[in-house]
Amino acid sequence: VEEYEEHMKKLASKLMWLALNSLGVSEEDIEWASLSSDLNWAQAALQLNHYPVCPEPDRAMGLAAHTDSTLLTILYQNNTAGLQVFRDDLGWVTVPPFPGSLVVNVGDLFHILSNGLFKSVLHRARVNQTRARLSVAFLWGPQSDIKISPVPKLVSPVESPLYQSV
After folding, report:
1. pLDDT per 10-residue tile (average), the chain, 166 residues
2. Where do transmembrane segments lie in this chain (predicted)?
């Protein structure tokens, strides 16, 4: 578990910076989140979820609809469908599990940091009628004393930031 967590921390940091770099944000713009640091500014939690077989999945809830309060969540799901994301144009859409893949969800703090350019994803987990489902969620974000606010270069010079600092 400790080795998995170390790999996930590095992966989460790399993914965050790839996303921020795509917006033109550099490490100088967010001093607390340096890619070259030992990541002591970050904290993580590992959440293991088990959803047993359910004969009437439409009458049960796996995990209620929510967004994650993190920067990013990296999710492993076994080869059993259950994760759904909400799309304004389609409603609830099942995320098919692909063997050997990970799902990356943008969390509320990254939504704020990017001034809404990366959207926090509303998602839920459904139970399955024929197979048990297992998921491993790596929830990753800053220490609680770090102030998160929209990156100044992502805010229009004529408008206020879309989100307040938290």
Report:
1. 92 94 91 73 92 91 94 93 94 93 96 96 94 94 93 88 93
2. none
Task: Name the active-site residue from 87, 126, 131, 133.
Answer: 133
CA distance 84 to 109: 21
Q: How far is CA 146 from CA 30, 31, 42, 143, in A?
A: 11, 11, 9, 6
Residue at 32 is within a domain? yes
In a domain, 153, yes or no: no
Strand 63-66 with 91-94, pairing: unpaired
Residue 133 lies in a domain: yes
Structural domain total, the chain? 1
59 is catalytic: no
Give me 42's structure tokens: 């970050």
> Rounded to an integer, what distance in angstroms lies between the CA atom of residue 52 and that of residue 128?
8
If phi > 0 it is left, if psi is from -120 to 50 it is alpha, else beta; for residue 26 that is beta
Range of the domain at 66: 1-143
State the pTM of this model. Answer: 0.91
Contact yes or no for 115/155 (Cβ under 8 A): yes
pLDDT of the residue at 36: 65
